[in-house]
Amino acid sequence: MHKNFIAGAWVEGVTTGLNLNPSDTNDVIGEYARADAAQAEQAISAAFEAQKRWAQCTAEHRSDALDRIGTEILSRRDELGALLSREEGKTLPEGVAEVVRAGRVFKFFAGEALRLGGEKLPSIRAGVDVEVTREPEGVVGIITPWNFPIAIPAWKIAPALAFGNAVVFKPADLVPGSAWALSEIIARAGQLPEGTFNLVMGPGSKVGQTLATSRHVRAITFTGSVQTGRAVGMTCMERGAKVQLEMGGKNPLIILNDADLEQAVSVAINGCFFSTGQRCTGSSRLIVEYGIHDAFVRAMAQRMASLKVDHALNAGTDIGPVVSQDQLDQDRHYIALGTQEGGHLVAGGELLKRDTPGYYLSPALITETQNAMCINREEVFGPVASVIRVKDYEEAVETANDTDFGLSSGICTTSLKHATDFKRRSTAGMVMVNVPTAGVDYHAPFGGRKGSSHGSREQGTYAREFYTSVKTAYTLA
């Protein structure tokens, strides 16, 4: 049985839960501890006591610890990638790539731990020195989703530790395996004071709520659903805690008449359907200019028919299963709703049977939709894409921006004029030109606008804004 990690020790939970393989629901990956509010409080108390000791460690000490963690993750990429794909449903190449990303993130922040600087400013008063420094926030609560079960925890945990914070980590219930494996590596890094890092697996209603309400948790970073994120944000703001929210998107991909058709189809297939469409940055709205619309739809349907949906670990699989029965039901609900609203299901959307029982769904393409339809307003989070036909570039931009979300957006065009204009006018936090809306670098800032995100950016050098607090000191010389 896989236990929680609290105050430097592996601790049994109050209950346990089974981790099932969505590619083969007969395959039990393992039994994992589930904590209650009391155990979450124990982890918070341990982190609170350990944080000061961790912050007093030298930057080099913290850097060495993170580098060691990153090295082990990379050395075990195949093993960890297989575990990830087995429990979440990504194809094996995608699972291994995510593990590599996690290792690179830890190594990046190993460097950032040494680069945290400050400023010395001239005062407007004679004989006074002004110093600006950054200090750790304290205890950071980390709440992560199921769709990137090792990469998202890595890009939250690594900067938190790099800048001297202590961590209480609550992973998603669906994917405890990758979280536990990552935590076991961190626990064996051997350079963190007991209590600096804690893993508390369990339900959000108990563990997550305890993190959000505890006065000792000075910052919460959350990635997940809009509804839960807003609740976490309100709770944190009411007590004056720092909060960072990533809550999803309804990302547009514009296809203009002048686009390279083959390239546009490849970009759309990747953004819409890879990782089973379970990416907050995925292309869920395909906004296609009138002149290329019919050729684009035909080419998409042809490419989709060639995609192999199968067991995540099988060689040659292009798309793995949906992560769970609940998610599969949600995907099918939106496919039905899209057609009820007037859309045409031109490809996919069928339940599939494979050699093993799993949540297999053929990728779906729904055409003749309008931007006001629910299928284009609400996040589906599955291998489902809708097509919106527009008359020209101006209507395409207006349609792309007409959403409550603003995480990622994209455009396929050979026009430098339109590409440049779209980068300026898009109301998303990230803009892609002739590349999929999903897929970002680990050293670049990640985040959106409007209903997608709240707070400072994640990843890269911008991560220090959330995990540190600025102090200004005045000294009479």
How do the helices and strands line up, and which of them pair or pack?
Elements: E1 4-6, E2 9-11, E3 15-21, E4 24-34, H1 37-56, H2 59-75, H3 77-88, H4 92-115, E5 119-122, E6 128-136, E7 139-143, H5 151-162, E8 166-170, H6 176-187, E9 197-199, H7 204-213, E10 217-223, H8 226-238, E11 242-246, E12 251-255, H9 261-273, E13 283-289, H10 290-306, H11 325-340, E14 344-347, E15 364-367, E16 384-390, H12 393-401, E17 408-412, H13 416-425, E18 430-433, E19 453-454, H14 464-467, E20 468-476
Parallel strand pairs: 7-8, 7-10, 8-9, 10-11, 12-13, 12-17, 13-16, 15-16, 17-18
Antiparallel strand pairs: 1-2, 3-4, 5-6, 6-20, 11-19, 14-15
Give a nutshell description of this structure.
Helices cover 40% and strands 23% of the residues. It has 477 residues and is of the alpha/beta class.
Give your account of this protein's structure.
The chain has 477 residues and is α/β, with parallel strands linked by helices. The protein folds into two domains: 279 residues, Aldehyde Dehydrogenase, Chain A, domain 1 (3-Layer(aba) Sandwich), CATH 3.40.605.10; 183 residues, 3-Layer(aba) Sandwich (Aldehyde Dehydrogenase, Chain A, domain 2), CATH 3.40.309.10. Helices cover 40% and strands 23% of the residues. Strands 14-15-16-13-12-17-18 form a seven-stranded mixed β-sheet, sandwiched between helices. Helix 8 links the parallel strand 10 and strand 11. Helix 2 runs antiparallel to helix 4, helix 3 crosses helix 4 and helix 7 runs parallel beside helix 8. It is globular, with a radius of gyration of 23 Å.
